[in-house]
Amino acid sequence: MGAMDWDRRLFDSLIPLPDGTSYNAYFIKGSRKTALIDTVDPAKKNILFERLKSLDMNAIDYVVANHAEQDHSGTIPYVLEAFPMAKVVTSQIGKAMIMDMLAVPADRIVTVNDYDTVDLGGKTLQFINFPWVHWPETMITWIPEQKILMPCDLFGSHMACADIFVADEGAVLLAAKRYYAEIMMPFRRLISSNLKKVKKLGVEIIAPSHGPIHRRPGLIVDAYNEWAAGEPKNLVVVPYISMHDSTRIMVEYFIDACADRGVYAEQFNLNNPDIGKLAMSLVDASGIVLGSPMVLAGPHPKVAYAALLANALRPKAKYLSIIGSFGWGGKLTEMLQSFVPGLSVEVIPPVLSKGLPGGKDFAALDLLADAFRDRLVKPLKSSEEKTKTMQKYVCSVCQYVYDPEKGDPDSGIAAGTPFEDIPEDWACPICQVSKDMFKPLKDE
């Protein structure tokens, strides 16, 4: 019942939308009552009304507002005007928000508590509190008879596509990870603790309010569990900017030094960044290294912005450091560290060069790479683990041999990574078959 927005390229005047987005609404008809689950952005309200008209509907009994944000609730006043008997169903906090932001009268709103139900006649709507996905009032709607979950923003993806259901799982997961990184990551602990509510339902279909519908719900639920609660990976993210090449030279040297030590590092030039890609890398990162020249006795404004963004997104990163250059003085490191009070990180001593970096600066960058190696690359803990680590595996299709001593750096697998510890979504670098197509290589 919703609308595609193929051309929208920015959300909240902040978030890039490279693939557009969709605003999904769902019409549920029981034997006695009807319900509209969420609405659309007001800019697309005409499309919603055209689709309602095509159903020849004379009445809507309930308009469920899982989330009060305007891209889902903004058309509610127009629906209430067109259907005078309709009532909005929302959470206690949602009622106050909808009254404040949309001027909906209190007598048009019905509030529900956790696990309350509405019987439509043969179809039941059950409302489950799921706060902070990504506002405090959010809830999800469950139809037990059809095992359909409508979680609004949760499990969504900013993606306009012709397919109602997920067709390309890889593309949808990528878009969903971007969405999670930009919008949901600050609330990862709450999401992780509340996912058990979803897991115990026995969901067969997840119908979010952005992006296509999931008929294989385990795909997105497992991904969320990993993104929200999984251990951070062997990854250091390096957002940087350089004015006269000194910082760029240092960053590139550090990236190479990390690679030599089996640490996977990604650099992001902040001149014209896609902050969505930066946010996606922060989902998995163990370390963040900010690279900045000194500007007016402090960090470059774009690096300051990256630090503030990381602080707002609250990724799982455990380590932070700073690389930079200066001409005469200032408080580059102190200011950058002050911008990330929300990150629970160990600060590894920064490396600053006066002017162009020289020998002692490169030596200090080597020590910084050593520090990340010592923290991120797993040491061999016992001879038994060493035996396990040294076991090679061969691809049964193309005969490619995975050697743990070498790893697969091009795919982000550091040297010294046992085959058993490679992520399940890793694929053979030669023929792209999945990990389960590999067998232990027997001694020759």
TL;DR of this structure?
The chain is an alpha/beta fold. It contains 13 helices and 24 strands.
Task: Describe what you observe in this structure.
By secondary structure, the chain is an alpha/beta fold. The protein is 32% helix and 20% strand. It is built from 13 helices and 24 strands. It has helices at 45-54, 70-73, 76-82, 92-102, 169-184, 188-199, 217-229, 246-260, 275-284, 301-313, 332-338, 359-376, 383-390; strands spanning 3-5, 10-11, 15-16, 21-23, 26-29, 34-37, 62-64, 87-90, 109-111, 116-119, 124-129, 139-143, 148-150, 205-206, 236-240, 265-269, 287-295, 298-299, 319-326, 346-347, 351-354, 393-395, 401-402, 438-440. Strands 15, 16, 17, 18, 19, 20 and 21 form a seven-stranded mixed β-sheet that branches. Helix 1 links the parallel strand 6 and strand 7 (62-64). The relative contact order is 0.08.
Radius of gyration: 25 Å
SS field, number of helical segments: 13
Quick one: overall form? globular
Supply the helix-strand structural class.
alpha/beta
Mean pLDDT: 91
Q: Beta-strand level of the residues, as a percent range? A: 15-25%
Low-confidence stretches: 380-384
Euclidean distance between termini CA atoms: 62 Å
Number of strands: 24
Largest sheet, if any? 7 strands, mixed
Q: Percentage of helical residues? A: 25-40%
Fill in the keyword field for this structure.
five-stranded mixed beta sheet; 13 helices; 24 strands; 20% strand; alpha/beta; 444 residues; single chain
List the helices and strands and how they pair.
Layout: E1 3-5, E2 10-11, E3 15-16, E4 21-23, E5 26-29, E6 34-37, H1 45-54, E7 62-64, H2 70-73, H3 76-82, E8 87-90, H4 92-102, E9 109-111, E10 116-119, E11 124-129, E12 139-143, E13 148-150, H5 169-184, H6 188-199, E14 205-206, H7 217-229, E15 236-240, H8 246-260, E16 265-269, H9 275-284, E17 287-295, E18 298-299, H10 301-313, E19 319-326, H11 332-338, E20 346-347, E21 351-354, H12 359-376, H13 383-390, E22 393-395, E23 401-402, E24 438-440
Helix pairs in contact: 5-7, 5-9, 6-7, 8-12
